[in-house]
Amino acid sequence: METTMDKVVALCKRRGFIFQSSEIYGGLNGFWDYGPLGVELKRNVKDAWWRDMVTNHDEFSVPPSAPQAFAMTGLDCSIIMHPQVWKVSGHFDLFCDYMTDCRETKRRYRIDQMRGRWVEYPRATQDERLSKFATQRFFIITDADTPEAGIEDTALRARKFFGRQYEKEMKWQSETMIGLARTDDLRHVLAPDASEPGTLTEPREFNLMFKTIVGARGGADDAAFLRPETAQGIFANFKNVCDTVRVRVPFGICQIGKSFRNEITPRNFTFRSREFEQMELEFFCHPKESRDWYTYWRDRRYQWYLNLGLKRERLQLRDHAQDELSHYSVGTADIEYAFPFLEKGEFGELEGVAHRGDFDLRSHMEGKLVRDAEGHLNPELGPDGKPKHAGSGKDLSYFDDQARERFVPHVIEPSAGADRATLAFICEAYTEDQQPDEKGEMQTRVLMKFHPRLAPIKVAVLPLVKKDGMPEMGLEIYRALKAAGIASYFDQQAAIGKRYRRQDEIGTPWCLTVDGQSLQDKTVTLRDRDTLEQRRVSVDTIVDEITQRLRQ
Ligand code: GAP
Q: What is the pLDDT of residue 278?
């Protein structure tokens, strides 16, 4: 059975994974709250990343395919930084999207997100209604959430616009068109709920940074920004890290934290939010070795998602075309996932792996850099001939005391979204199968096939009945699991079949059932969520067994 976004969103709400923020007041678009299970799941995603990158990293051995051994360390920087950081980084001038407003409905759209279909009515010249428009060919945009609903919506509106009697004669020019970039096309666009085409305004730039005021006076000089990425805190602290911990280039600095972007059209559940978490690594290396490190990190990060359960057929590594690269980037690849809200064959970005060269460290030294005609980076000059946005003036170069060489390190940046990764793991885990119930009738079972490392609860302890010492024995096992740091759950309410299904639906990989035999021989049944296999295991070894399985 197909996984649809509607089913995923409904399960997230029903089982306490994700709620709309401020729901009791009607919600706030682009903001989400993680419920009791969601917070555990997302924490497990972030922990898996942090452990892999920092805690479990062995700086004395060479990881497979790495050019050499390297150190990894962490940081946790403030969300609000000195405003000059964003001027120098380019976000103040360049971190913009193009948007357009509908004069009729007063709604706002991001140009590159307009989805819809071209429709043409060949006999339009005879039609009075159409004669006042320059063309009989329109791009009907839709704000429907799913591709199926989008097609239905555009067809409905085309029928309404051209007249139902001409439906058979209408020509659908192309199946879908994404990214309506040419401004003159906007005259031919029929916006959602607009009564005629051409109601969209000329595209305008819109800076995505949230502005705030620091301090009580609140003058223009006190304006500051919520960070739109965690990366800049790492660059601003590069020297602090080099001076305080024993690291040598090549090495990496990791950070997990909130970022904020005033997205024009947040959509697709948590995929595009206005407040989200990033997991970013800035890896500093010698310029001559940077291409090898770029390849290493790109491939390693792709593998991370596979290791945690995303299927290869829904995950892709895509190298950016030259015209897609960010203002700082020499090369970038995206790790993308086929989310259910996308059309068949489309993928959405989970993580970008960018070769940023020396752009960031040099910008923070010399002032905001721009590329000249030959492709060299130089400080952008203002009308007075001085750097338009001055850097810190601090020396952020690195001195290699063994090679006796000073250089500005190049940076490789794998930048992942914790919320997007969590959403991908949720979509991948969602499964429906058919299983017989207690009466032998086939029922649809919903299960979340989370990788055990990510599952919010690892083990549910279920006494078969609420008597004969079974609850007491169950509680003892539950407490032993908890004491070993294994997220466990104790449930003695309802029939055992119902309790199993509750656990399947929240993705608990194993259920331990305490029954009559348990009291005699100190064994319990261990039920596997995916295979439904049940086997007896000794109570004395259960903590070790689960610990072993979680390490796999
Ligand atoms: N420092 C580089 C940087 O921030 P990015 O591609 O803009 O690069 C990195 O963002 C990752 O952050 C994305 O791949 C995505 O996973 C996540 N992300 C970006 N904008 C987001 C949003 N509005 N909502 C949720 N996640 C977002």
A: 98
